[in-house]
Amino acid sequence: GTWEENCCQKPLFILECLKKFKKPLLWVDADAMIFHRPPFLFGDADISLYFEDIASKQVRTGTIYLAPTQRTLDFVSLWHEVCQKKISQQEPLPFPDQNIFSALLQTYPGSLHIGQLPIEYTQIFDKEPIPMEKACIVHFQSSRTALMPPLFWRHLSGRELKIMRMQVSERLLTKT
Questions:
Q1: Strands 114-116 and 58-66: what pairing?
Q2: pTM of the model
Q3: Tens digits of residue pLDDT in 13-48
Q4: In sequence order, which residues have a C-beta less than 8 Å from that of residue 76 and are 6 or more positions away?
Q5: Same domain for 11 and 58?
Q6: I need a surface site. Which of 8, 29, 79, 155 has the fewest CB within 10 A?
Q7: How far from each other are the two terminal CA atoms of the chain, in whole angstroms?
Q8: CATH number for the domain harbouring residue 43
Q9: 18-25 long-range CB contacts below 8 Å, 24 or more apart?
Q10: Residue 47 CB contacts under 8 Å (≥ 6 apart), including other chains
């Protein structure tokens, strides 16, 4: 499928895992690396994630903690439904899962206990000025390479892109 269709599989997969395992879930996007085991900071939150802007509820969905509560299941189910609706209606870009999640937080009528993850759980490799030794999870933002000029990366295989990310992360770690 398209990048948008693939992104919109995330809520369904999360929902299926929550229902099947009935245990808390820490979702980490495939383009991320875990450098340190994140300490458990989630308390009694149904969902915890990093807010780019708390007032507007703009969030990053690359790392999400989800408790297996009915409130979480209801919200993730709605997230999945809205993603699928946008795909079936062929709405114009952008509508990746993160934008839909943020919009739902602003209008969600249900009760949901939301927690704030620290930036160290969702650091973007070329964006945050956080020392690498403090980062738990670093995201390499595959969506950014999708928007780069084709001459830069399209000739590379997925394996070659992964090797590049590994080399970048090794360089970042050796700088600390």
A1: unpaired
A2: 0.79
A3: 999 999 999 999 999 998 888 888 888 778 899 999
A4: 11, 14, 15, 18, 66
A5: yes
A6: 155
A7: 39
A8: 3.90.550.10
A9: 18/66, 18/68, 18/72, 18/73, 18/76, 19/73, 21/68, 22/68, 23/68, 24/65, 24/66, 24/67, 24/68, 25/65, 25/66, 25/68
A10: 64, 65, 66, 67, 72, 75, 112, 113, 114, 115
Q: Could you tell me if 111 and 143 lie in one domain?
A: no
User: Does 90 share its domain with 130?
Assistant: no
Token pair in block for residue 115? 């927690």
Task: Identify the domain containing residue 18 by its residue range.
Answer: 3-118
Tell whether 17 and 96 lie within a shared domain: yes
pLDDT in tens, 106-156: 888 889 999 999 999 998 877 777 777 788 898 877 655 555 555 445 555
